Amino acid sequence: MKKETKEEFCWKALHKMCELAGHDKEILKEEKYFQNYSMTEEQHLLWKIWFYHEAGKTLRISKTRSVREFEWFDLMWGLKIENNDKKGKE
Predict the structure, then answer these.
(1) Residue 30 and residue 47: Cα distance in Å, rounded?
(2) What angle do CA 50, 54, 68 make, to 5 degrees?
(3) CB-based burial of residue 36 (10 Å sphere; 0-12 exposed, 13-18 middle, 19+ buried)?
(4) Would residue 29 count as lying in a domain?
(5) Does a structural domain hold residue 42?
(6) Which of 5, 39, 76, 83 is deepest in the core (most CB within 10 A)?
(7) Which residues on adjacent β-strands are paired with residue 4?
(8) pLDDT, tens digit, for every residue of 43-87?
């Protein structure tokens, strides 16, 4: 089995974020999707847990590094977090 590259993992993580937030992955084609779409805190937590687990398994990195990588990844490409259960385009 071919080892997944970092770029492939990034796309996989972005698609998982869209899936958990209930958005179509086509939103990623928009230039500023991260400003126009959001996810709930619960969805964000599920994505974070998924990311930690998958990054450790796929990229073979430690949990500490997975946490650090997620913080940067979320800051650069993550959706806004809504404090209530409202999601979607504003």
Answers:
(1) 21
(2) 80
(3) middle
(4) yes
(5) yes
(6) 39
(7) none
(8) 999 999 999 999 999 999 999 999 999 999 999 999 999 976 455
pTM: 0.86
Nearest to 88 by CA among 38, 47, 43, 16: 38
Number of domains in the chain: 1
The rounded distance, in Å, linking the Cα atoms of 49 and 64 is 13
Domain encompassing residue 78: 7-82
Residue 89 confidence (pLDDT) above 60: no
Measured distance between the N- and C-terminal CA atoms of the chain, rounded to whole angstroms: 42
Residue 2 lies in a domain: no
